[in-house]
Amino acid sequence: MPTPKELANAIRALSMDAVQKANSGHPGAPMGMADIAQVLWRKWLKHNPSNPQWIDRDRFILSNGHGSMLLYSLLHLCGYDLPLEQIKQFRQLHSQTPGHPEYGYTQGVETTTGPLGQGLANGVGMALAEKILAAQFNRPNHNIIDHKTYIFLGDGCLMEGISHEVCSLAGTQGLGKLTAFYDDNGISIDGEVKGWFTDDTAARFGAYGWHVIEAIDGHDADAIDAAITLAHQESDKPTLIICKTIIGFGSPNKQGKEDCHGAPLGQDEIALVRQSLGWPHAEFDIPADIYSAWDAKTSGLNAEKAWTKKLLAYRKSYPELAAELKRRTQGDLPNNFVANADHYILEQQRSGQNIASRKASQNTLNAYGPLLPELLGGSADLAGSNLTIWDGCKGITSEDASGNYIYYGVREFGMSAIQNGITLHGGFIPYAATFLIFMEYARNAVRLASLMKIRSIFVYTHDSIGLGEDGPTHQPVEQLANLRLTPNMITWRPCDTVETAVAWKSAITREDGPSSLIFSRQNLAHQDRSEQQISDIHKGGYILKEPHLPPVALIIATGSEIELAMSAADALGEKGVPVRVISMPAPQLFDMQSTEYRNSVIPTDVRARVAVEAAHKDYWYKYVGIDGNVVGMDNFGDSAPAAAIFKERGFTVENVMQKVECLL
Fold first, then answer.
1. 3-state secondary structure (DSSP) of residue 630
2. What is the C-alpha to C-alpha distance for residues 168 and 100, in angstroms, rounded to an integer?
């Protein structure tokens, strides 16, 4: 039987060989954390390589994602569908082993990591999701949801501000099934971190309300095992295990130095590592007895079988709950959701309310929420402004996690990354809200949701200069363009209650990526529509107003500027100028439609085109052309009543008319 050190050395060998072959990568972290990984993955981690999607598996997140060869080595050795050939293709085009772990590319990778701190945040989200799902579904003698979340993290993760946001909340929520391992090696890219990172990390996490286990020798398997045992004895607090390690362990000339952090060791040094570790095997050669000792397929199958037995008993006692758990964890919507949503959309068209779209959003949540027990909301301390709390909301606390609403506090970045973790865990459709301007705080988490193509719903209110007196610090300008230019993101800016209800329906039913829902502070005018026009809202852009004569000009608008566009078109019509008004609440979705449909909405032979939106104007030239006009923003706003700012910036009927007429 191989020793624990020999088993850990298999990780070190695969990692240094793969990085060397790629001539690119980070060997230091995998070599330094190999002993911790060996103990955790072989003794403690509940997982099944033959079924990586088993819902009650433990979650493992490598937050210091630059050490990706650590995770790939573990997956390969344990028997996941990651053959040795893929290890040899590390960092190569279309391989299953990209430079940083990417969700969807590699079986067993729970989330995309690399931007430091976000894996930690995702892990907090997963642990929170487990706690909430368990509170909603577990019953006496039936703990059908009962798994842990483990996170590996480094100095960089703790230096990033997001670590404060999420670890503070994790302590407040009492996430007792969360265990994080801090790779305290004292080295980052620039050298020894004592020159710029001197925090008392143990005291910091103690202040958050974490259980802290200090000064564990990260190369002593027995000490690591004892620390994990101690962590599991604490059920009311998350645990941080601080492991003292040597980066690049085993490298005679580079261990403990930044030299091995982000560059291959070199063939000569690798030969010395083999001698130092007593690893005589050739490049990528893992002996059969070591493969056998690592293989987790049998133990994983047995663990899932034991859980399946529990599930059968649960199903017998609680058949409706069991069916609901299956539906939710498979990501299926209730059978009646789409029909009920469509009915509500038609009701909104008939009711014709003139209200702010943020209020229309809250009304929609009151309609859709009772249909969707998986809906899990939250806001960054702005619930009263974002209007994200609906009648059926119940707040989640450390003592009672059975609710459906998370009070995130002022933590926009942390909130967004936690939401991504909740989405990845499964069983929920989460939405999280703040002002649109504060999307900037959360930008990288929004980007990662798009990169991972997951159903995270971002709700942003106070969408323009229309928020008024709070001024340019709070008035978004470039944020809409930013969201719309993000691949895989669908961004909605609805103009009334009907488009708002469609936007929510679209975000909830979408399975291949995130959505951003952009809502106004001020009231918006209801628009008349036919049933066909209502159907066409789902296409992201449609003809809202068609003149009696063939149009000679087009006005494209969104959100609060639709009312302005309609008034300008009416005034031009009275002057004998037939103008079509196009509502485009979701341009990215419109761009996905057929060429035939897009040309039917924006005819190629009508060149007099004006776009109107209280956001950065540059985005709209793709639709109006360089010969078109845009009534929009190219500078920051002002502190004043909304009406005064709109007039000052040219958002008037007269100016829109002039922009059209000068093109004719």
1. strand
2. 26
